[in-house]
Amino acid sequence: MKVYMKPVKMLSYTQENGIQIPLRFQLKTRDDELITVKIDRITEKNQEKLAGNKMYIYKCQSVINGVERIYELKLEASTMKWYLYKM
Amino acid sequence: MKDRVIFHVDVNSAFLSWSAVHALQHGASVDFREIPSVVGGNQATRHGIVLAKSIPSKEYGIKTGEPIIQAKQKCPGLVVVPPDYYCYERCSRAMNEILREYTDKVQIFSIDESFLDMTDTLHLFGNDPVEVATKIKDRIKNELGFTVSIGISDRNKLLAKMASELKKPDAVSTIYHNEIQSKMWPLPIRDLYMVGRATEKKLISMGITTIGDLANMDIEFVKYKLKPAWGTMLWNFSNGIEESPVKPEGSIPYIKGIGNSTTIKFDITEKKDAYKVLLSLTEMVAMRLRSVKYCCSVVSIWIRTNELSGYSHQKKLYVPTDETMKIYKSACRLFDEAWQGEPIRALGIRVSDLCSNDFVQLSLFENYSEKKRKLDRLVDGLRIEYGSHSIYRSCFLHSGFPPVTGGISEENNFVMTSIL
Asked: pTM surpassing 0.80?
């Protein structure tokens, strides 16, 4: 997987316990084309606190352009920004 | 003497490794710690000096404090990372949060150093101090991503601090009282805590080149050659004698003075501009003074000219104070007396001769206003809560000068001190 760390537009919902669950996100391709990716499965959810900065890491699976892809999303707790971390 | 267990935790190349971890977390492809890189101020605002350097950049002879231009001449491919004080404070806070899980006696010595008194809590985590320190070191590395060196002593903070300097990075070292001769005495005298360039020169001229030389010298001779108090302290340090307790946060720190200085974006030639810089610095100095619950009796200012020569001037106040405007007025008077009209590159203010602010000595010759004291405290509260720009004096409006200058950032709550 390659590290992208690209900010993405995210549609997510919040569970009763405060946990954020990502549903679908939108990102710009190299040709400035907007594509929407529906998150099919979240396989793992972890937390990191590197440099004291809390981030939640979601390992996800989706079918993108007919191919099953595994990738990682990150949610930065201090800014509430979503990133496509690795794909 | 009952054995104590004191840890000194020191972050390796603090600013640089914190910047590196932050960048890696945000997708950087290189680790600044593994390439020649430095953390440096902005050259455009004339703050372009090396604040921290990576280990590979040491091979090029780059030194902390030298101008970035000079460092780039030594290493043309040098990567210069801008400082991010907000990130540094967050890293420091996160580290101290972990440390507080091991003992309630954590003394934050500076943004990247803390002392831990593990005497009463060590048994909860293991029997061997080295093993527990290694656990703490590894936990910080795994959770926060940066490395620390931990020094351990069975006597005092001084030995723990000296021990943490022995091996870097990512290491645990000890100087127990029975290891002073073998581990501390062979070190060059410059490595002794509180020995700077000037003292080193003096000691070398006395034939003292190692810490052991000083320790084995007659204390009376050392007191005679240096000043008595200074000589006694250094001689004690060389013999590993130091008694201060680990002072947790909240206790009033023992400090001799508080000061802030700044290099100005352009050379100041007019008095009114210098006054603004002085007021801006006083705002920070007075706020820090009040935060540690002290009043000051001496105000001094320091001027550096565009030719990089400097001079200072100081004044004793009739009555101790912690009021911003009183300190500012004294600073202005000092400035008028001292300034010789040359362009000014940097200015500094320092207050000293501190006493507790528990009670106020009234004076026949000065007005006392409880309202002004309350106002100062209110402004401090607002600035701590909402940042230094949340409220400021109208003279700073469109002036180009920041309303508060100094400290390391808006949320700075670290008391810098050289006293253990």
From this structure: no
